[in-house]
Amino acid sequence: MRLLLLLFCVSAQLCVAQQAQIIRGPYLQSVTPTSVLVHWRTDVPTASRVFYQAKGKVLEKLDTNRVTDHVLALNQLKPSTRYAYQIDSKSFDADRYVVTAPAFGSSESVRIWALGDFGDGSASQKAVMQSIEKFTVGQRPDAWIWLGDNAYNNGKDEEYQKNVFDVYQKAFLQNLPIYPSPGNHDYAGKHDPSLPPYFSIFDMPIEGQAGGLPSHAESYYSVNYGPVHLIALDTEMQEASGLMLKDGKGKQVDWLKADLAANKLPWVVVYFHKPPYSKGSHDSDTELDMKSMRENMTPIFEQYKVDLVIAGHSHVYERSFPMRGHAGVNETFDSSKHVVAQTQADKYYVVGPMGQGVIYVVSGSGGKFGGQRPGYPMKSSVYTNNTIGGSVLLDVNKHTFHLKWIQSDGVVGDEFVIEKR
Ligand SMILES: [Fe+2]
């Protein structure tokens, strides 16, 4: 009798394993120099099993709990190493792999793709994706940062499926680590972080395992990726105290200041959804969320010598001068006062380790695009474009930071280089 039950059990497990279909993913989360979380979803509950391989050696990770939303941690990996992986199979596929992050302290060059306001199911969304696919054939991105409004219209699970997973799965999600941030659409216009499906779909490295200080909060976290310190913030979340990022104080801001103070890497990129400076489809002079970000947060970015602040929300591309000391409305911008003196050129900046101003980029046209408010383009802008979608590539090594805005037609619409010596 015992034998029969065991046989039945084994047979049933095999039967379920054969019948289960992957309906989401796999996608890669919290990638560090030595670990990755592989996520996927099946149509019926099954055990979770991943086979992975580097240099011909095949390893297996198994969790026998039967679930539909699967998360498996692969640990003890080697930095900057490519691992083929497969769900419940040893038939590896050339497009399904993870490359671990560079070792902490490594200054090897990295390529980071920044995408904002994308998941709307539009033709422009697909065109922007295809432009990056084509542009990066010879050098794929290493990491992918999301600037919020990832899934329209309300960040529902089914909207993530249709407008994110179904769009990016084959070309990017199965092999490119995502470090996301949320927007107002992901929060469905609310501010309570217990509500958005975003937080159950994604796992963020909040314990400091990817570098930076532990945040212990899924809304905000940091990542050391080669020579870049990436900081993801949440402009939508209201803390129990009632404070939000735009107030310039609270737990998130306290963590941000401590994380910035502790950083030792040469480049700092801070990203979030609602920009401090924009005159695209949103206006930072008249919309209180953005006005407060400008007034309360830009002094912090300046104090800690952030190199780039990149946001979305406004469905355009806007790039500012390297600037300091301008927290007023657009009309009060004075290039003789606010543009950092030693960086007057508009495409090539040579700065000392502590001497540059902050460059603010809005890249909110990864799917949505268009719109302008009175005063567009801003006086603080070097370049703006609201006529075509696009996204940003960052190529960074120890001494050089190169930003390119790649339009959906493949043209490099804007670029600049900062050389730090
Ligand atoms: Fe938005």
The main sheet orders its strands as 8-7-6-17-18-19-14
Structural class category: alpha/beta
Question: Please, what is the CATH homologous superfamily of the largest domain?
Answer: Metallo-dependent phosphatases
Helix content: 10-25%
User: How many domains in all?
Assistant: 2
CATH topology name of the largest domain: Purple Acid Phosphatase, chain A, domain 2
Helix-strand sequence: HEEEEEEHEHEHEEHEHEEHEEEEEE
By oligomeric state, this entry counts as: single chain
- Highest CATH level, the class of the largest domain: Alpha Beta
Give a quick summary of the entry.
The chain has 421 residues and is of the alpha/beta class.
Task: Give an overview of the whole structure.
With 421 residues, the protein is α/β, with parallel strands linked by helices. It folds into 2 domains: 79 residues, Immunoglobulin-like, CATH 2.60.40; 311 residues, Purple Acid Phosphatase, chain A, domain 2, CATH 3.60.21. Helix content is 20%, strand content 30%. It contains 7 helices and 19 strands. Strands 8-7-6-17-18-19-14 form a 7-stranded mixed beta sheet. The chain has a 7-stranded mixed beta sheet with strand order 9-10-11-12-15-13-16, with helices on one face. Strands 1, 2, 3, 4 and 5 form a 5-stranded antiparallel beta sheet that branches. Helix 6 links the parallel strand 11 and strand 12. It binds fe (ii) ion (FE2). Fe (ii) ion (FE2) binds next to loops.
